[in-house]
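Note to self: keep these together.
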Amino acid sequence: MPKIIQQAFAAAGVRYLQLEAPAVPADLVLRLQKYRDPARAPSALREAAEVAAAEASRLTSPRVAVWRGPVTAVDPGGAVTLAHAHHFHSRLLARLLASSTEAHVVVLTLGEALEERVDELFKDHSALEGLFLETAGWAAILLLARRLRRQLMDEERAGGGSVTHRVAPGYGDWPVDDQSALLGVFGDAPLPVTVTESAWMLPRKSISAVFGVVREERHD
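Structure:
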């Protein structure tokens, strides 16, 4: 995206971050496949996890868009308004933002290459390889979401603040149907994802998230 366009959207509270592809550990892939002790997984599965982890790291091209703006209303009953114009109803979201006057809304995607490879593997009847690469993709999302939160925390600490954990449509009582409405906070800013009528994001290895900005208490 041309720099001048990025600057224009930055004035509206939108920015784009560059994150390096994570090194996905094979152990994390196995844990997500319900192996509590990855060292005890059969050797064939461990080898498949190692291949999938390496391939996921190679095929991941993270793209991130971040909006930062005001939390203009929070009601304990669950009504939440961002930037005066974006209305949601979720007790979970209301609890998250109860102490926040600002929030970050994030869109994060791995891009299309990994899921295209997953589709190829399933088409070629390589079900185990496809399943493990699919799992490795979600492992990459998990690692990137953690890294992004740490980055946002570091930025907010410079101003005496921090950030909450993340929630998104589909968590708890927040309807997944609100996905398009949540991304509406970005206005006309281009996003690395689209949302289907059934509220799925494309590329499939994508997440949205809301983080509340909180002020850290100071004790003199």
